[in-house]
Amino acid sequence: MRAYRYIALVAFIVSTRCFGQWAVFDVANLQQSVTNYAAMVEQIAKEGEQIANQVRQIQQMEDRLKRMGNMADVKAVVGFPNLKLDLNLPTRIRLWAAQAANGRGIFGDTRGGVFTAIPDQFPDFDGAMVEQRAISLDIALQVVSRIKVLARMDIAEKRLPQDGQLMLEPSGQTVHLRASTFPSSQGEKLVLRILFGDSVLSVEQLGLEESAMRMMREIVRRPQGFVVACGPTGAGKTSTLYALLQLVDTRRVNVVTLEDPIEVELYGITQGQANVRTGFTFASGLRAVLRQDPDVILVGEIRDAETAGIALQASLTGHFVMTTLHTSDTVETIVRLVDLGIEPWIIANALSAIVAQRLVRVACEDCRELHELESDLRNGDELLLPKGSKVVRPRGCVRCQRTGYRGRTGIFEILELDDEIRDLIKAKSTSRAYRELLKERQVRSLRRAGFDKVTAGITTVEEVVRVTV
Ligand SMILES: [Zn+2]
């Protein structure tokens, strides 16, 4: 019994030393059962090690971002200059910052006083969920309240979801953060996403094949057309459209977007924030936009038949329209548009190309290991990878937070419409007819595209299977 008390005392001292004025547990915790004490001591030792590791990682990350020229952003986030939490927890704040600058955003989940990192849409980094360490509930609540004030939310409202934006302006550079709250049964959950204003990906950075890149360049240059990027949430659809917008010469071409939310502020174009509450829907916004006769229109997402109808019609009347749809692949996109009740001839004539996509994590360059497949990898009768193929196996190191992955890249299935497909659409064909045609033409499926990236050593079999199920 005495030994355990001793351990508990050590635990308390260690925790106090590790975290400055704030201790991991309070006095009440010290009266918990003896087994808990032993576990906690172990936990604290681990945490100390993690802090050291993470501080190292922050330094490495700062170096890396400095090379990328994003240093101002990172400093802004690391410093949290406007937050003024007065917690005297530099280490703790820095750890959140590590998450933030890692592109995952800072995510607070008050459940059990645990802060967790969850994936966000920032495509340059992997979106895996990494649990951060426990933080006491009262501090979590303070942080949530403070951020709500900064994001101009109603601080007293805890039962309804809210969203807002906050801006940090350290060293003259503005960093935008989008904040949203969600009332969970355990308390309010807060998510912050960093809007990296100057890091829109170029078409070259998306992960497209050379030929696909050429095709997209050629399509975007046309005066009219309709491009749909499809995939589930977090598949990088918006990044793709933003990258395509970079190909447009905005000095000569009038570009307007309708988004919800505006994820990145782009230079030289007009961006509109749709707002259903005020009646500024995609459909009504799109009608208003069309009265101003822009050349290129980006509609954040097609959610209903009305928007789809107006957008497709717009492309037939001399506009270039880009949008996203929550469908899993190119064939499903066509079928969905037909199912929405839009005249097949409109779809057939308007559509230029469909880009189905997913994001896969990139195997960490510092720790990836190659090994040979011991047997053929098949999907039904399709041979995905033959026995003996060299594939990457994730291992994990300090630089990739032991996940084996660092960064993300896109895999794509691209369908450019031609007369044969247009005829199928006009004939209201079933998805089987499209799939047979795609197979005949050997259009690379998402999975095939993924496995090509596996054999190139970029990602792993597991990743491709995970995102293409
Ligand atoms: Zn690694």
What does this structure look like?
By secondary structure, the protein is of the alpha/beta class. 41% of the residues lie in helices and 22% in strands. The protein has 16 helices and 17 strands. It has helices at 2-18, 27-30, 34-68, 71-79, 90-104, 137-150, 210-220, 237-245, 282-291, 305-316, 330-339, 344-350, 419-426, 431-441, 446-455, 461-468; strands at 106-109, 114-117, 130-134, 162-168, 175-184, 187-195, 225-230, 255-259, 270-273, 296-299, 320-325, 353-363, 369-372, 377-379, 382-385, 390-393, 405-416. The protein has a 7-stranded mixed beta sheet, with helices on both faces. A hairpin with a 2-residue loop joins strand 14 (377-379) and strand 15 (382-385). Helix 3 (34-68) crosses helix 5, helix 10 (305-316) crosses helix 12 and helix 12 packs antiparallel against helix 13 (419-426). The longest helix is centred in the N-terminal third of the chain and has 35 residues, at 34-68. The radius of gyration is 25 Å and the shape is globular. The termini are far apart.
Q: Measured on Cα atoms, how large is the radius of gyration?
A: 25 Å
Mean of residue pLDDT? 75
Helical proportion, percent range:
40-55%
Please, how many helices? 16
Bound molecules: zinc ion
The stretches of 5 or more residues where confidence is low (pLDDT under 50) are 8-34, 68-134
Cα end-to-end separation: 53 Å
Q: Characterize the overall form.
A: globular
